[in-house]
Design brief:
With about 550 residues, the protein is an all-alpha fold. A hairpin with a 2-residue loop joins strand 1 and strand 2. Helix 10 runs parallel beside helix 14. The radius of gyration is 35 Å and the shape is elongated. About 35% of the residues are buried.
Amino acid sequence: MKNKLLYLLFILSSIFRKNQSAITFLCVIMIVMFFDFLLFTILPHTELTMLDTYFATHPKDLDISLPEIWLSLLALVLGTLIIVISIASQSTPKLIDIYLKDSFSLSYVWFITAGSLHNLFVDFFITIYIGNSDPERLHNFKFSALLNSYVMLPIALTLAIPYILYILRYTQTKNVVDKIYKDNRKRIQRLKIRTNFGLLSKNKTVSEYQFLLFEGLNQLDDLLKYVDFKEPKSDIINKVSLLMQQYLEIKPSINPRFFKISTHIRNDISFKTITEQFKEIEEKQVFYEHKTYRQFSNAYWHLIEKGEFDLASMCVFEIYQCGKVAVEQKDDEVIRITLIRFNTILRFGIKHGLRDNEARNIYNSVFYYGKFLDCLVGYQNVELIKQGATYVNVYLNEVYRHSLRNDSFTFLVDVFTWELKRVLIKLHENQVSEDLEREILGIFLKIDNLGDIKHRSFNTNIRVLQIGLALYYLRKNTFFLVDIICRDLLLDLEFMNTHQLKNAIESVCKRIESASPTFWEDTDRGNLNLYFSEDKAFTKPFLERFSVQLEK
């Protein structure tokens, strides 16, 4: 019985949303008629004896010529709406749709319309009864005249200026974004309400709710494309991310039937090209995450094409933020599609970098990819850590190949290496399995051996990072890992003699000792020096340990 009542309320709510303007007009008309009747019925006639006497002796005073005032007010309000909304909607495309669903605006406009009709109605009958000299019927309309002239009209005039200011404020892009965000946030929060659990078991309800969620996301996506200023763009990107994070937090309490792919999802532009994945998306319950991540990646591509590096970087940051919440919620499926989305972002960055000779976007993306891998290490899911490290290694190899022909990619090899170094340190701090640590370390140590052996040389920058990791292991007394790094260094004897290798390693250690924590130039990630090591005090013990291995 309770579920039937909730379903009925949902159907009524759906009907109201689809016919909000007409229903609002009918409600306003009914309220005016109710108060008109209430005044006539409740107000004691004896209290109006003086007014009756006055109107009896001056009947023409009942002919209150107020239609012009009402129509002037209506013209003022509608004129303001047409001018303001039409101009503002050119840069804010969803403004008209949002306005037509604003209850306060609709109620006020229909109130003025109802007041104008009510005044014409009263004026018409008063004119007739004055002409017929019918004081009894004329007496009945004095209450309507009082209501219209001394209650409704003052209210309408008093609210006119505040309403115009409200509309002007309403057209600001920030307020439009906030409105869409708050509406969608309410819808997401309702999903976890226990009373809605049974309601979401019906296909029609699920389809309608999915449509409402996607409608809000599509509105924000459209705004992001049309808005020119950076501040509202950053606000939109952040709001989309916040909605996703809130959704992930309440997802475990949602009815599983809610994740069934409906017609609205199938017809959404983000899903029309992946129809073969519908079954998988439905089983893994990740349709909302797919939608949001596709919006992020599309926005990222458009932003890097326009050269808006900071906003593009913000898209990657928000993907990281959503992924971090997925890790906190232990949602492995969302974590996997987050990894895939990071890979997609790197692909976009590489494509753009090769064409425009620009490595900046990849540099920023790798940073957040590394931070997400840090979260996975904290989660201690061995499979996902391996998967993430493998993906990074794949793109590292590709970046290295491009660096042979494009000098702007050379530094990116060091950036990928530094991120893997951070991941290894995080693995050690979290005391993950030794086998996993060895495996990731093996990937890390292969970086300087990516090229053909005929063209290999001592890679100073990579060796700085690798020896920096060895110094960390020395400080932690993990000597077997130090020895693994030392044995990898000895592989350079294939193209160097013992004396040359020893000098090269000593030169690397001197560079580590002289490195400062900050760089003398500022980048999108600040002035952090990638080649700085906090453990540079251990260079001498390392050199002694390496010399022992070299002399064997």
